[in-house]
Amino acid sequence: MTNETILTGQVLSFTRSPFDGDPGGAARLDAALLIRDGIVVATGDSAAMQTLAPNAPRVAYGDALICAGFVDAHVHYPQTAIIASWGKRLIDWLNTYTFPEEGRFGDPGYAAVMAESYLDLTLAHGTTTAVSFCTTHPESVTAFFEAARARNQRVVAGKTCMDRNAPETLCDTAQTAYDQSRTLIDAWHGRGRAQYAITPRFSPTSTPEQLEALGALWAEHPDCLMQTHLSEQRDEVAWVRTLFPQARNYLDTYEAHGLLGPRGLYGHAIHLEPRERDRLREVGAALIHCPTSNTFIGSGLFALAARMAEGHRIGLATDTGGGSSFSMLRTQGAAYEIGQLSGTALHPAQLLWLATAGSAQALHLGDRIGNIAPGMEADLVVLDLASTPAIAQRATRAGNIWEALFPTQMMGDDRAVRAVWIAGQERHAR
Ligand code: GUN
Ligand code: ZN
């Protein structure tokens, strides 16, 4: 038996990238959307959807905006409980707050509670796909994939590998990192909506031997993603130079070990040399912009417009908990603010595209998620564009959909998220 639903509201679909000129013209609005068995069948006017599915139940969202669910391309779900920890920059922040908390995830019960908590919180903020680092414990990966499977949620995750410069209890070895990651790939990659990302934390916490082992694993499983961090803070870049004296630059520490490729996701990538930028673009790797994290842990400003103009693949992310928010709305606002400081006012369409289609394309999942179009998975967020008095009074002045959306991108939070649908099922409503 087929399962059909018609949603009505302002259904927003991108017809092309808003970075390819005239951003406001990159999307269309329809009044309705038909979902069948978790997949978008069509968008159009309400009568047309009714003709396609005369018996389908209708869910009416008034003038709320229905768009693709948010795709958060870089998070650390194990850092949920230490978000907004005071007073440290990257390396001290890792040692003071992050590593002690991550040390708790060898307990499968704790990992399960935190995975549920993370997915509950982010669902309420409109995030339908997250790409998460776990901890070194395989149990933390299993817990995350299990929690996502129970919600039929499309996620990407991997065991964070570290064999030096971290507490001993959090360290694996080159061999156990390889073995445990491989076992998790066999268990989870491509199972339902789960995908595995091979996950060396960053070069400072991996020996060359571990990077080599994970590069070999990626070569054996080239359809996996690979996620790591790159050139986030200047101190970190200097440290990498001392740890890898033979490397030409930070990116080279990955490339020399088989960890540079088109399915690579490089978090932050703020302080890049021209040669690193060229290589990343040549191979089609993705840079993941984490704007609230840029400022919260004092890393610096990612030059998004410049990287976009160079032709980089770019995703948008919260970087929970180095980032200071679970909200991909707040993250769009922060991306706007950082854009302003780098001399470019990003258009509301560009911000929304980055949080949906752009991130999905960074994950090579742009044909399945990140937009509303026939054949795509029905992961949707329904946004109330007048969710607070402050936003409502501003939105009434709007002359078009982008002016109506922008106050919510700048000032909105989970109160703006009226409903969230995952694979055609409503999973959150307020
Ligand atoms: N670099 C290495 N590990 C981390 C982490 O957990 N968060 C952030 N923001 N940067 C990192
Ligand atoms: Zn990170």
TrEMBL record:
One of its GO terms (cellular component) is cytosol. It is an enzyme of class 3 (hydrolase). Keywords: Hydrolase, Metal-binding, Zinc. Residues 66-425 form the Amidohydrolase-related domain. One of its GO terms (molecular function) is guanine deaminase activity. InterPro entries: Amidohydro-rel (IPR006680), Guanine_deaminase (IPR014311), Metal-dep_hydrolase_composite (IPR011059), Metal_Hydrolase (IPR032466), Metallo-dep_hydrolases (IPR051607). Pathway: Purine metabolism; guanine degradation; xanthine from guanine: step 1/1. Binds 1 zinc ion per subunit. Its EC number is 3.5.4.3. The keyword Ubl conjugation does not apply. The keyword Endoplasmic reticulum does not apply. GO terms for biological process: guanine catabolic process. It catalyses: guanine + H2O + H(+) = xanthine + NH4(+). Pfam families: Amidohydro_1. Its cofactor is Zn(2+). Belongs to the metallo-dependent hydrolases superfamily. ATZ/TRZ family. Catalyzes the hydrolytic deamination of guanine, producing xanthine and ammonia. PANTHER family: GUANINE DEAMINASE. This is Guanine deaminase. It comes from Roseovarius faecimaris. The gene is guaD.
